[in-house]
Structure formats: structure tokens, C-alpha cells
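Section 3.1 - Work completed
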Amino acid sequence: MSRDNDTAIRHDWTASEVQALFDAPFNDLIFRAQAVHRAHFDPNEIQVSTLLSIKTGACPEDCKYCPQSVRYNTGLEREPLMDVDAVLSAAREARDAGATRFCMGAAWRSPKDRDMPKVEAMIRGVREMGLETCMTLGMLSDDQTRRLSEAGLDYYNHNLDTSEAFYDQVITTRTYQDRLDTLERVRQAGMKVCCGGIIGMGESDGDRVELLRTLANLPAHPQSVPINQLIQVPGTPLDGVEAPDPLDFVRCIAVARILMPASYVRLSAGRTDMSDETQALCFLAGANSIFAGDRLLTTENPGEDHDSRLMNRLGLRPEPGAAEPRAEAATG
């Protein structure tokens, strides 16, 4: 394919095309990704999100990377669904610290209908503060998806995690198709999709190719694409897996940027294990979103002071906090 078409939105990538990107000389790949990035975004702006665990632990799923699974002894203290006022207080603090999107995660296989009124109140309250809203609650029914949409939810996060071929080596309690079905419900309801994966779970280079190709070939590109590096948590089955080479991780960011030119590519979990130089290369490769704060759901994250210093060193600035209109509901 001609590089003249790099800014085009495609949904027909072949495995050989994606593999060729990964195989390109590093300098050529980064240059190409940066050119694509500049065609769609201000290269010196970073979208800042904050993530809060609104219900922690006791998840029945067996995701081998997750300290919140009830199947693994990680010493994590279980916490029930938070009160609405406590969530809104955290959102207010995040907004005042410079976040433009507030993400809320619950350790559920899927929400229970009795919890939906609280969840809906959280969405409405956070939006009233002028923040974009995002939630990750597990699989959704049609009715739950409708209710989230009517409450005004901007983004729904539901990661594919890895390739379909490697998926059952990581998770057996829900299928790859289950995840795709939830993403389709979210798209049909007009909410934006936040969907990415995890690098460093023992997957092959080919699995990374297929993960990114699957994301890029969805009916619509996820508007937000989190690329996570596995955080190894003692007690989980993936503790001790060999960490990815930092330059291989940067390649994943660059390929994601080229495949999904207009999506936000988030440098997500795992930043505490990355040097400032690795993060700088990720921003050069097209990452333009981070989670701010010293915690993600249950794991450590670089604090706001460290992020502020790094962004100042790189001449980066937070993206202004204007909430975008939601996507139109799909028809047909």
C-alpha cells in the first residue's frame, strides 16, 4: 500500500500488511507513525484521564492478569459498589487536577440490574461537572446498554486483551465473541468505544499483529485505544512472565497509530515499569492519552507530579477539556 494513503481510515488490513509494519526499520516506523499522528492531532497535546475503581475485587472471571479475580490470592481487599457522592467527590478532584475524562471501573462479570440506578446517577453527576465519562463494567445486556446510553455515558471500555488465538490461554470464563458482542451493543447504542489490549502476557509477535489488526478491522475504529503493558501482580498466574522489550512495546504503539489514525492511543497500564525515555518514544510513536494519578484500578501509576515533570521536559501539554459530542447510534 502507498504511504500517501496513511491517513485514510481503513478496515481491511491484512495480516501481512500489519506484520510488515512491525518488521520495518525502527526509525522508518516511528517517522511514519508520527506523520500520521500529526495529520490528525496536535502532536504536543495529551488527553488526560483519571481511573477510579468503583467496585473492587471478588470478580468471578479467571483473567490471569487480574488481581481482582476471586480465584487468585493477591491480598486485595474487597470493596462494595461505592456511594454516588464518594464517586462524584473523586471526579471533582480529578477535574480540578486537570483530567478531562473520568473513567469508572467495576469488578463485575456484568452489572446487576439492582446496581444500575447508582451507576446511572454516577454518569449523570460526572457529566454535570463537564467531564467526559467512561465505564468498564464487564459484559452488557441490551437493556443495560440502553440505560447507560440514556444516562449519557460517553465511552464504554471493553478490551479484547489479546488475539483470538491466544485468548483462551489468558481467559476461559468468557469468549472472544462475548467481547465482540458487547462492543457491537455499545456501538449500536451510539456510545464511543474504548478498546485495546495488553502486551507482555506471553503472547507471540503474531498475536500482537492479530490484536491490532482485529481492532483496526472493527466496523468502526475504537475512539480510544488503550495499550497496556502487563503489570505483574504476585498471586496471579502471569506473575513472572518475561516483560516485553521496551522497543517492541513502542512498536505496538506506532502500529496502533498507523492502523487507527484518528483514534486516541492511550499509553495505559504499566507506565511505572517504563523509563521516561520509553514513554517519550511512545509519545513520539503516536500515543496521546494517559491515565493520571498514583493509582489505576488497584495497581500503582506514576503520580501527577512525575507526569507533570515529564510532560514539561517534553514540551507536552494537557488537551483542553471540551467534551465531544457522542457518536450517533448505528442504524440498520
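Second construct:
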Amino acid sequence: MNRRVAYIDFAKGLSMCIVMLFHIKGILNVQYGTIVENLLFSACMLPPFFCISGLFFKEHDSARVFFLKKVFRLLIPFMGFYLLTAVALPNFLHYYFGMDFGTVLGWPSLWAFIWPGEYPNIPLWFLWSLFLMNILFWIICRISTKWFPNHRIPAMIAMVAAFTLLGNIAGYALTQDIATLCKTLQNLPFFFVGYCIAKRRDVFILNTTFINKRLLYLIVTLPAVLFAAYLPSLLSHESVVADIMLFYIQGIIGIGFVLAFSAFFDHVRLISYLGRHNIVILLSHGLLVRLCAPIVVSLSQAIGAHAAIIALWLLLIAAYFLFIVVLRKILRLFTLFNPLIYRIFA
């Protein structure tokens, strides 16, 4: 396995482990302290995922080819697992076994990811958001190339900034994020950062000759990530602008730290394995966490909330080394629709 794939997979696996911990701790509404919350869950969880997606963005395909690729890789897995884990299975468990997830049931569960209501497998929003973001960013690339060929990058920066501003305004003004459009626009800069990194061949992230200095990059990013952890305590949080700035400062620092950390520890193949199959984990862990909620509650009464959360987290990580094999086969079932969809749009 080459160095680039190894540490990118490690970065995805590391971020996915943090995502699982975040959702597990949500069962008991436990906080892990200011530094941990700011460092792990604000800086190192979602921004690296969006950045890595931007790293591998391909803009040269035609509109039809690009759209079909994103439908096959993102939309079909999302819809398949949404119908299975957020509609069919929760309704079946509720009506036949009395299990209540505290979410939308019945026909409204079919469109709960758009409006309105909460569905049992919340992490699926990322795949849907990533589909929307790819389509939007392809449009941004085409407009900047066709209309501003001599000022392409400034035009892209201006459009990304405009959409990001729109997303933040809407996010604070609306009580409901319709179809996660606000989150998509708010996280667009992290995707753009990944795209820009991929265009710079002299940046260490895509240049294997620079990876030999990976310890240096890790050391350099440590003060920055500590700054990101303590930054919220330095701000009054009385200003919406300050909160927005904090969100992006922490995100950018988190991206740099996760990539540097992954470049140094990419020899830990177990985390890289999880990273290679991060989509499978993303699609399934939300429902697994909800199913395990009674176990966490009972266990917390015996060993404490924090210990119970860590115990389930480690158990799920270990279990996925078995689950991934089965879940990959389920995911392949949804690809059976690809030829039909290709004929419709071809």
C-alpha cells in the first residue's frame, strides 16, 4: 500500500472513530470536558471528512458522467440504507416489537431527512450532504472556468464565500435545516480546502517525498491544535460572528492536525482498515448506537456513564471488523440498480 493511501485511510478511520464516540456519548448526554469537546468533536470530526472528499474531487467529467458517478457512489447507498435503517427496520421493530426510537414513524419517515422530523439513522445526513456538495462544487468549477477563465481561483473563492455566508445566515435564521442544506453550505470551505490542497503538488499532503518529514509536521501542528482547544474559552460567545469564526478556525486546524497525525501513525493498519470502509460504518453505526442505547443506560448505572460510553465505543469498533464483511455485501445489493439508472440518464 502506498504512503498516500495509507495515511488518508488512517485519517478517515480516525475521524470515523471520533464520530462514533460522539454519537454514543449523545445517549447519556455526557460532556468530556472543554478541551476534549473542542479538540475532538469540533476540530477533528467532520472537517477532515469534508476536506478529504475535496482532495479527490474530479471536475473534468461532463455533467452527465459526473452526476451518474455521484448517484452511484453516494445517492444510491444513501437511499438504500435510509430506506432500510431509517424507514423499514424502525417501523417493523416499532409495530411488531414495540420498540420506540423517539423518531418519525409511518409514511412521514420516507421524507424525514428533508422535512420535518428526526429519523433513527441520523449519520446518513453526511452522505446526502456530500452528494449535494459535490453537485454544487461542480457547478462552481464550471462557472469559474467558463465565465472567469483568467481569474478562476478568485471567482471560486468568491462563490464559495457567498454560499458559505448564505448557509450561515440561513442556519441561524431558520429553526429547521431543510434537507441539511445549511450544513452543506456551512461546510463547503473545508471541501474547498481539500480541493486546493490537491491542486498544489508541492504540499506535503500529496507529495510522498515530503512525508519523510511527517514528525516535523506533527510537532508543528501541536501548538495549533492546543490553540483550537483553548480558543472557545478566550471568546465571549456573545457574537454570532465570533462563533462562526471559531467554527472555521477550529475546522482548519483540525484538518491540519488529523492529516499530520495520520501521516505519522499510518502504520496502525487496524485504523486504516476502518478508514477504507468508512462509508459502510457511516451508513450503519447510527442505528446500531440506538439499538445499544438500553445497554449503555444499564451499564452506566453499574460502572458510570463515562466508562459505559467508552466500553460500548471499543466494543463497536471491535465488532466492525466482523460487521464490515456482511455490510459490504448488503451495500453491493444496491449496486444492482446502477445499470437501470444509467439507462434512464444515458
